[in-house]
Write a sequence for this structure.
């Protein structure tokens, strides 16, 4: 009997920890790499989904947070702070509980999904809703961490990137080599930075024979990297990636250019179409921002940018239960029936 031990124990030799580092873990990582049948048929490729919603707090942030909180604890920090569109804060709050630390959270007022707010609350973090967007929250969090005794655990913290790079290790370990293409949603651009670092490290050590092309997708209303300029008032239904001035902008450009990939945008309509396809045809329920990767792959395929026969991994970054409004909206209201088998059978179309 063996269970996955969490990314620090599983990849200890590739992470900045020592024998005395106090590991703070919820046994994150080890997430499913699921073959995507319908997406494979549509693209003529072998498409896999890296289902990061299966992490302890429901998103990929746990990979980075186990490292960031572990190192904060090692440094003697008593409190951590983050700006968030909802997932980073959920993760920071949970790992702070494990570490016995206070967690302060800054979120854009009215712009985070209810499930994520519930997580920050139930884990007992100190939440402030900021009258501004994510970029304002991050500026505020940076300034507080510079002037008060509180450690910043956003992805500008290099330990976050170290933890998140382990997703690439898991993919190569599962497939036996790197994929040809890796597709990701892009918000603050930490994750594309981390995946690229992970792939490069495995290739440098000969564990993978090559690195994939990195394809990133932003939401059209929040696509500063695509536009080449800061978006002052970002908008999109995918609130997780509603970001106008990504902190890891330059690293995202490096990942794109070094890998021979690209960063493009997808509309909210394309995101919602991919969101519904993932749930109804692949059986994988993700939050809207996560569907940006798949929306992007489908857009690229329609544009003829996807040669058949390639191995492609799409990361779906967060669990659909975090933001179920989009699953319920526009769906027909379920029919109410009496406690009667004949009526139920008839309504179900069985009789
Ligand atoms: N998908 C989800 C579900 C996210 O929560 C995020 C980022 C991203 C994609 C984009 O990743 O920022 O590394 O490019 N969420 C951050 C947060 C901003 O505060 O939870 P990125």
């Amino acid at each position: 009997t063996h269970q996955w031990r969490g990314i620090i124990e599983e990849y200890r030799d590739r992470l900045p920890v020592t024998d005395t580092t106090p590991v703070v873990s919820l046994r994150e990582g080890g997430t499913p790499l699921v073959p995507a049948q319908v997406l494979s048929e549509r693209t003529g490729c072998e498409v896999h989904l890296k289902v990061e919603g299966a992490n302890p707090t429901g998103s990929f942030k746990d990979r980075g947070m186990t490292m960031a909180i572990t190192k904060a604890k090692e440094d003697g920090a008593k409190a951590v702070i983050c700006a968030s569109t909802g997932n980073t804060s959920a993760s920071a709050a949970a790992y702070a509980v494990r570490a016995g630390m206070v967690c302060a959270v800054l979120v854009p007022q009215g712009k985070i999904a209810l499930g994520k707010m519930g997580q920050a609350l139930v884990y007992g973090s100190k939440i402030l809703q900021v009258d501004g967007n994510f970029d304002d929250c991050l500026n505020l969090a940076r300034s507080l961490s510079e002037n008060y005794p509180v450690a910043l655990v956003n992805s500008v913290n290099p330990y976050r990137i170290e933890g998140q790079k382990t997703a690439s290790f898991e993919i190569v370990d599962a497939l036996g080599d790197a994929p040809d293409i890796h597709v990701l949603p892009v918000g603050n651009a930490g994750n594309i930075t981390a995946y690229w670092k992970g792939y490069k490290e495995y290739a440098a050590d000969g564990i993978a024979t090559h690195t994939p092309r990195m394809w990133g997708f932003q939401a059209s209303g929040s696509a500063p990297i695509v536009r080449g300029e800061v978006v002052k008032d970002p908008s999109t239904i995918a609130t997780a990636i509603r970001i106008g001035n990504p902190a890891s902008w330059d690293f995202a450009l490096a990942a794109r250019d070094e890998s021979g990939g690209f960063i493009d945008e997808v509309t909210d309509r394309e995101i919602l179409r991919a969101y519904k396809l993932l749930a109804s045809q692949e059986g994988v329920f993700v939050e809207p921002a996560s569907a940006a990767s798949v929306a992007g792959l489908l857009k690229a395929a329609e544009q003829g940018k996807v040669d058949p026969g390639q191995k492609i991994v799409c990361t779906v970054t967060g669990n659909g239960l975090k933001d179920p409004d989009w699953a319920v909206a526009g769906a027909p209201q379920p029919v109410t029936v009496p406690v009667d088998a004949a009526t139920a059978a008839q309504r179900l179309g069985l009789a």
In short: Residues 203 and 335 are 54 Å apart (CA to CA).
